[in-house]
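hey so u asked for the seq, here:
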Amino acid sequence: MSGSPVVALDGPAAAGKGTLGRRLADHLGFAYLETGLLYRAVGHKVLRSGGNPADEAAAVEAAGSLSPADLDDPKLRSDEAANAASVVAAIASVRKVLVEFQRGFASHPPGGAKGAVIEGRDIGTVVCPRADVKLFLTASLESRANRRLKELRERGIAGIHSRVLRDMQDRDTRDMERETAPLRMADDAVLLDTTELSADEVFAAALAAVERQTEK
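ran it, structure tokens below
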């Protein structure tokens, strides 16, 4: 890898992308961007103003007015914000605004970082199709729902397994079937199924993939 190398990390909700992305970035000395927060922030802004996340004009206005401070709102971790994010992410004009932000981050990582780890749904296919390393994390729907339920309970948020499972199925369907930049694995991505793996095992496999690309 040369210049400002980029690790693209894609996959469905609760597959372990966030945990892996932050750990890889820390290990490599790269900047880390959780792109889902951008879409969550847009959806949350629309909801907070009393609007509908499916309203294109409202969503584009929210995307254009995002500030770094918006990404620090703890409410972005709620299921409400997550579901709103999946809705606004299907709007092509919103994605255009946010994709430019992501590409700027990739080409000029902040804080003097020597590279970037960017995590999302379409990083390796749309945002950074020429990324140095592409990883695609997945896991069974049941295990991802269980992880999300555990995460909610650890944050003191009541959750019902059947509802979490249904919401995750709905999000997967929207993400994979949307016309604009659907969730899919890039042809040259490394697939990591995290269903039966510990966080340490996932990190080891991902780091090995990065090192293989570095040696090319």
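The beta strands are 6-10, 31-34, 116-120, 133-138, 190-193. The longest helix spans residues 161-177.
lmk if thats what u needed
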